[in-house]
Amino acid sequence: MFRSLLTRLFADEPAPGDIDANDAEMALAALLVRVARADDRYAKIEMRRIDQVLARRRGLSQQEAAELRAAAEMIEAEAPDTVRFTRIIKDRIALEDRFSVIAAMWEVAYSDDDRAMDEESVIRLVAGLLGVNDRDSAFARQRVLEQNGQTDNS
């Protein structure tokens, strides 16, 4: 099953109907892992935040979310690039819902209270690939900071 999903996710030209909404959510989970790993410090608090985001988005229990994250960690480790994940998300998640994808990425990036430029770079790349403009991405970032009681020191 895992290998089959990887094959679908990384096919050069997936056949119409090969990628479904569950694959798009797995691509999102892998992107969240990619953001957390971008600074070479994948902390437990980031893992817990990914679990919380996945549970909230999918209506999963914490155990189910942790299992989804574990699968996403394996997929992310094998992924040749970020563009393939974003292509799947862009094909399956409406533009107005991609804002929440970017907000989830900012949430993971700031979960460890460390402003890592590598994580921010990944989010900015993904936002552009998903068609989310800089202003909307900055708004999502600001909202996450406010929810966490942090301030923007940029």
TrEMBL record:
<feature type="domain" description="Co-chaperone DjlA N-terminal">
    <location>
        <begin position="26"/>
        <end position="142"/>
    </location>
</feature>
<protein>
    <recommendedName>
        <fullName>Co-chaperone DjlA N-terminal domain-containing protein</fullName>
    </recommendedName>
</protein>
<dbReference type="InterPro" id="IPR007791">
    <property type="entry name" value="DjlA_N"/>
</dbReference>
<dbReference type="Pfam" id="PF05099">
    <property type="entry name" value="TerB"/>
</dbReference>
<dbReference type="InterPro" id="IPR029024">
    <property type="entry name" value="TerB-like"/>
</dbReference>
